[in-house]
Structures are given as structure tokens and as C-alpha cells.
Amino acid sequence: MKIYDRPGFPNPARIRIVLAAKGLDSAVEFVPVDLIGAEHKQPAYLDKNPSGVVPLLELDDGTLISECTAITEYFDHLDGNPILTGRTPKEKAVIHMMQRRAEAYVTDAVGLYFHYATPGLGAVLQPYKSPEWDGRTVMGQREGEKVRIGMRYFDDLLSSRSYLAGEDFSMADITLFAGLMHADVSGITVPADHMALQAWRDRVSQLPCVRGRSGQAFMPEDLKRLGF
Amino acid sequence: MKIYDRPGFPNPARIRIVLAAKGLDSAVEFVPVDLIGAEHKQPAYLDKNPSGVVPLLELDDGTLISECTAITEYFDHLDGNPILTGRTPKEKAVIHMMQRRAEAYVTDAVGLYFHYATPGLGAVLQPYKSPEWDGRTVMGQREGEKVRIGMRYFDDLLSSRSYLAGEDFSMADITLFAGLMHADVSGITVPADHMALQAWRDRVSQLPCVRGRSGQAFMPEDLKRLGF
User: How much is the ipTM here?
Assistant: First the structure.
């Protein structure tokens, strides 16, 4: 199996944590995609994934799977023990609900803020991000505000449970965790009074499948190209 | 179990088709939500679903499940035979990928077009749809363009397979089908040269779980309130 991605970026980080949680790190060959050079917006990549995003999973039979939820469903069911996506109908339902909320309220919203209200990944990618549209920065700022509201929602939720879907770690926690990594580098940090969210984040960062990955926001050469 | 929704609206239609496909129509009590009166944006409803959308499933133990994918996962697994969400890891992966694409490319994009670039559900709901933001109509129009591109993508895809995820009907087909119902009433119709998409739509509309539901776009009293 191959995964097309770039280490340190938020959605690739989600699937790398999934692989670690399932003991599948060595089952996959990683193929680097030059996101800063907009390789994912060129025809060769769009043929594989018309959504133009990473990560992308290619199975040995050539089947292409995009979208983090779909890739997670695949890896989580390979051993018949779906610890990340739920074992009972109710577990599956709550986890998928929280997965969508983590994406919509934080992770996807941070992505829009990053690409539309900040310099994002720089000049090469800009032409693919609607620079002709006057409303783009306002839209990006609105998404940033959504992230702040989302952080409050999850802080409140986590004041009465250990993880997003209850007492067990799931794919929804991975999604929010990666979203907060991206929020950090985008300049939207978790407010100091969000104690429950911060405690959850500390707890997640200590899990064996996450530890060592939490500081991995962008590779050094990427940061250099981005002007950091 | 209870479902809070409004018959004829696109996302409620998705779950009503799921219930029919699983033989669960009579297992659920429907609680009407006045969408045109913005009942779903008031505190009593937001307490149940902070996303402020329908449908919402309430289990007998009080657990609240929002998001169509999550609700579908629940109903599809109750009998241990997940015909709509996939039985093998690969089936699950392809179905979830196509579910996200159907939502992102068409169903969610139609919703944004409908609410931001047309009069949508009318005056009462408008204050909850960012009327202060100058860029909203432009954003809505951009989403409408996304729908047209999405229709082309699915037309191309369906020229070489019977259903979105392959040869079997799945939740992704339900999602796209409901999205096209909403596109019709929003004024974005499937172009006449999209033969494969149209043939798929005819095929889906004849399935026992769908038949009789396809013309159900809005209740007569809702259409009257909307000025049709």
C-alpha cells in the first residue's frame, strides 16, 4: 500500500496516528507530495484524487481512497477490531458524529482560515485558492471565528468526558488533535481558560500512538520555504 | 427512537430512505421541526444539536445523534448486515469516500447555494444566515458552480459503474440523490447531456426504498409559506 502525503501537515498527521494506533506503520510506503509547490493541484495528482488534497491511499490492487474518514475506516477494520471507529451501532454513531463536528467546527475551518486569511502555503499555491475573489479573506476570518467557537464547544464537552466520543479514544480525537496542531501554526491558539480542552490535549499527546508526533508541525525544509 | 426533521427536505429525505432500505420506518417516531420558522436555530433545539440542523436522532436512552453519516451508521448496523455502509474494509472505504464527495461536491454545496445565493427558506431564517456579510452571495454562487462541476464528475464516474461506490447501492447514492432533489428546487438542474447521471438517477428512483419519495420535495404548506 502507498500513501501520498507530506509529513507534519495536519491531515497526513491524522492518518499517521491511525497507522500507529493500529500497528500498521510499516505496512505502508509513503510517497511525498510537494504541497508548497502545488503538486496536489496538477493534473497528474488530480487524476488520482479529484479533491486535490492529501493524504491519499493507494491499495495494492490500484484502488484509490481519499478522505481521512474513509482511509481510517479501511485501516481500522483490517484486523476486525475497530477500536477507532466503534464496535457497536451506538459507538459508531457517536464517533462519526464527533468526527464530523471535529472536522466542521475546527479542523476544516482551520484549513480554510489558514489558506484564505493568512499567507497559507505561499505564492505557488495561491492561484489555486481563488485570489480573484474579494470575499475570500472575510470568509477565512469567519472560519477563524468558527474555530474559536468550536474550541469553546469542545472545552465544554470535555469537562464531562475523557474523549470526544466518551471514555474511549477514537478517530474523532485524532481529528481534533490534528486540527489544533494546525490552529497553533495558523495563530489561533487554545485560550488559557479552556482547561478541559487543554487537559484532553495533554492526555492525547501522551498516548503511545501520538507521542513524538505532536511537535511534528511541518518539516524543517518546508518551514524554510514558508519563510519561518 | 425519535427523529427530529421535516419531511421533503433534503437531509431528512436521506434518513427516510435509509430507514426504508433497512425496514425500520415504523421503528421511529418523527418530531416535526419548523425549519421555515427557524426553530432549529433557537436555544431549545441548539441544546440538542449545536450544529443547528436536521435530522437529529434521539435514542431511547436519550443519546442524541446528528449528522447523516452517523445516523446511517447507526441504523445500518442494528441488524449486523451493513448493506449501506459496507461489509469489508475496502467497501467501507470506498463508500465513505464517495459519501464525502457526494456531500462536498453536491449536497452540502447545494445547501450553501440555496441559503446564500437564493431567497432560501425565506425571511425568518435570514438573520441566521449572515446577511451582514457582503461576500455571502458571491460565496453562494461559487458553491453553485461547485455543484455544476460535481455533476460533471459524477456523470463521468457513473459512465463506468452502476452506483457511486461500484455495483451496489450505498449511502453515497442516497446522499447524491437527495442533493439533486435540492438542486432541482434551487434552480440547478442536471444538464441534458449528463446521460450517465440521469440514467443513474432514474435507476435509484425506481428502488423500493426510494420510490414514492423522489417527488417529495417540500410539503405543500411549506411551499405555500415560501411563496410558490
Answer: 0.94
